[in-house]
Amino acid sequence: MIKRLLKDFPPPSWNQLKPSEILTWTTQQALYYTPFLLGCLIANPRSVLKQMLDRKNHSCKKCPSTYSCRHCGKKHHSLLHLSNAENAANRTKDWFDSKPEPPSEHFSHPAGTAHTNQVKPTADVSRLDDQTPVLSATTTGEPSVILGTAVARIQDGKGNLQPIRILIDCGSQRSFITTECARRLCLPTKPNPQRLVGLGEQSISGGNLALKCVLAPSKNDAPRLCTTAIVLDKITDQLPSCHLPKIVQQRLVGFDLADPTFYEPGPIEFLLGADLFGDILSGNSVNLPGGLPTALNTIFGIVLMGRICEVSSNTACSLFVKETSENSFADLQKLLTRFWEIEEVDSTIHVNPLELQCEDHFAKTHTRDDSGRYVVSLPFKENPVILGESKPGALVRFRKLEHRFGKEPSLKENYDTVIQDYLSKGYISCASQPGQYFLPHHGVIKDSTSTKLRVVFDASFSTSHGSLNDKLLTGPKLQRDIKDVLLHFRTFQIAMTADIAQMYLQIVVFPRDRTFQHFLYRTEPSEAVTEYELNRLPFGLSSSPFLALRVLKQLAVDEGAESPNAVNTLRYGMYVDDALTGADTVVAAKKLQGELIELLKRGGFELRKWTSNCADVLLDVPIEAQNQHVPLSNLEDTAVKILGMQWEPNRDCLSYKIVSQDAALTKRGILSTIARMYDPLGYLAPVVFQAKCILQRLWELQIDWDRPLPVEVANDWKVFLQELPTLGNITIPRCLFSNTSKVATVLGFADASSLGYAAAIYLRAEEAEGLIKSHLIFAKTRLAPLKTMSIPRLELCAALLLVKSLESLNQYFKQITVTSTYLFTDSMTVLSWLRTPPHRLKTFVANRVVRILSSSSLNTWFHVRSEDNAADLASRGSNPSDFSMRTSWWQGPSWTVRPFHEWPVNACEIVSLSQDLSEVKPITACVAHQVKSPESLFVPFSSYSRMLRIYSLVLRFMHNCRSDLQQRRTGYIQLSEIRDTAFRLILQVQAYHFRDELAILDYGR
Q: How many structural domains does the chain have?
């Protein structure tokens, strides 16, 4: 037994001792100083020492010792005294030489932390809404606390093991590595999406990268621990914070310490968190007597941590790291990504070879069953498909779902109803073959839909060989842009909306691919878990959107010859499973409705929830299926939006539904609110621009994500939020045309200010009564960069933004007849640049001029006064209350409804560039002149007289070029001309050979 104890704490000098020798040795010296007996204080010291004494038949009567228990005075060793665990440390403080007693108060803190009187964060910290990992802090106070350190080895990029000093902190949910160490090891990094939070719910800057690493003990190659560590510039200061006394080192001589130099301050390169803490433990912990720290037995050796009575230091180091769900941050990332996608003007999309592969796979594999439904095959990247074990993980997820059922009985009831509905309709069935992949699932509740619960399957659930989504091709983007669908919806006098019931579930999956679509469910916890397989296309596969839309496209090809209007709706008016379409007469609308129903029915699809601004169109639609308001913002199945566009069929107008927000007054809170502003057509561009300006001010002030806002900015934001509900009073006529001709003129405005630039596009159409009206159809804004840019350059950027916006509407313009296009700017400088050859302009200006002229004609650009520029409001921003009263924003300048010859505009022309010469390349002429000896003029001639006659002719030619017709010389060369030529040649020779003397004479004169 003693050998087993020595195995946990094997001092080198005790390795060869026999159990019978140990007691003899210990009776000859103070037992309190032996490392062996200190090591015996594991779990049950009384029974261990009692067994040792019993082996020698050693009783109290036979004991020769004159000492007694220091605690109670009885005849037993002080180590065998039964005491309270709370007082054990205090009662062992006298076992060594008299030292300062530790503080009497009881310390109780989270693991990895020290008692602090004052916390000074060493990182940039701020509060988070949903926390995630890390904090390093310094503490001040009387007790000295050492944190557990160890020397280990870590595998570098070449597979070699290198030494590293680590800090062990079970209060951290993640492990960390310093940037310098990661660079030294040459380990590849990847982005880390988690936020870092430490003590006091405070955020920590950095931690944007993570890497996979392997740790091993310093003396053995096994075991090896694998983890993912987050990269930080600095984990903590040197540990310990000060040198420990020699007495502490002496009392621990002989222990197999994990960090032999634990008493010397040194850098920390790695923090081992709770993710690995349980894997390093190899024995129990020991509360060492005499004010020594706790000894923790690990695979690295004995790790020391805790208070040391002998040391009273002003500083100590503490780390406490907390990790929570990434969902909030991930959701914000998705919201922000979607917001910038809407804000960004469409650009050219290049074809990906994998997308072509997915398209080719569908074309070769899709079929139709007897009912006309389409049968598709899952587009895998490679065959065979290799996936790891997923059933245990899916079972764990299902049990968590059952636990949620216990808290939400209504959710379970809805879930059971949906599963039974799927079974009755044949969407799912009991598994008929072993599953290769099991899909975890959860429910999504949407009160705005008729089917309140949607079962979503998680095909991103990872196995040892990736997830199902990792193996699938996503295919090309077939979905039309939301702005094109909404503009198509505004084209017709009679509008209709409908959606396809359970569109994905109407598409059949080939039986051989259903083995990848298994899931687990049971209605009662007492029942056995049943394995089901999905026979239809589930919601949650990365390839499902492509397959569903590709089926609709194929349906239009296969069955659309007799229904051209319905095909046109599938092409321009579908957004996933929602149809937004219309016609100009009741008869045409009813015909379109019938064609759509019949066409989709042939593919196994059913249209429901019909809505129209014309009651006659809904005569055959049940009352319960009609909606008073159609929330157009729900077309995109994302998070709740604070600005949701909706259609009111009774008034046939578009309006905005304002959802109140209680986001924190931080930069993160502002960003979260802005990202929820759903405005794909830019109708509220001035308001959204104002919000973006407030956010940019925080960037200029370098405010951290979760720090409280400055008072001025916070007040501006509060006012903005308070005024936001006034936007609910805005109504926009839905229909752009009151006749069937669909003939219009496009008007585009570009403007800029020091804050940013904007573009606004209007349609000018003639009404049935001969009146002309102008409607805003699209607008875009951009913030000016933080680096100051000149106003002319910003104006040029606005012109480019206008051109790009027009390009993004080309698909819509194909549906109507555009007779002409007029583009306006209030910058004469921009117009002049457009007229200037690009090679004369500097690179920044030249590139944008070329881009503008490649997409627009120079003859379409005109100058307009600043007060008549419709984009002026969007380029400066507006508070919601002011914006709601700006009627001119919706129609443009008043003169747009008049004939063109009455417009107060000027054609594009060149103006003086003197004020903007900085943008024109300076042209520098360099004339290289080689000075030769005048005698070289004589070389080509055979005689002096011949030379004089020829040069006289040259001089006569020069004279005649400069003189009028009457003064020109003709005829033979005169003697006076020859003498003049000789005089000039002599002057040239003298000027060359006597240039220094001539210069002196000139200077003296």
A: 5
